[in-house]
Amino acid sequence: MKKVVVISTSLRPGSNSHALAEQFARGAEAAGHQVELVTLRGKEIRFCVGCLSCQQTGACIFKDDVPAIMEHVLQSDVVCWATPIYYYEMSGQMKTLIDRMNAMYPKDYRFRDIYLLTTAAEDEPAVPARAESGLQGWIDCYGKCRLKAHLFCGGVGGPNEIAGHAKLQEAYRLGQAV
Fold first, then answer.
1. Domain count of the fold of the chain
2. pLDDT tens track for 108-144
3. In this structure, what CATH number is given to the domain that contains residue 81?
4. Contact 113, 156 (CB under 8 A)
5. Where are the alpha helices (DSSP H) in 31-118?
6. pTM for this model (two decimals)
7. In this structure, are strands 3-8 and 113-120 parallel, antiparallel, or unpaired?
8. 20, 151 in Cβ contact below 8 A?
């Protein structure tokens, strides 16, 4: 059994990327893994100010919802990020969370496999590349982990447009294969 954290970064009700996250989580649970689905919707996440005190103390100067999310990530074997793609990049709230997780850098961590689930209104093959590249920058800071898979669903811009889409089953199977 693995500990899996799924971080859904969309703030929109009816989020297509959150639907993928839910299916990934269900698949991982069906395979017998312990799953925590964390949504950023309703969370307080302040911007990093670059003071780097977290590198000395292991904790950020801001007291918001980030420390609890970081603890889930540090204690997990698998981390799955789900994000809508805006202007060919991960969501701003995902990037803000990644920046704030700088306090994790000097700490020991369990995670090895990273998954990325992305959705966008556009469906050209190049659309998810920058989101993946941005996440890869974070992954590169943790030498014991790797991007295991990236599932992209294009052509779903409006709320709940992903309903009935075959990519939901792919997300479920990806979670089962963790």
1. 1
2. 999 999 999 999 999 998 999 999 999 999 999 999 9
3. 3.40.50.360
4. no
5. 53-57, 66-74, 92-100
6. 0.97
7. unpaired
8. yes
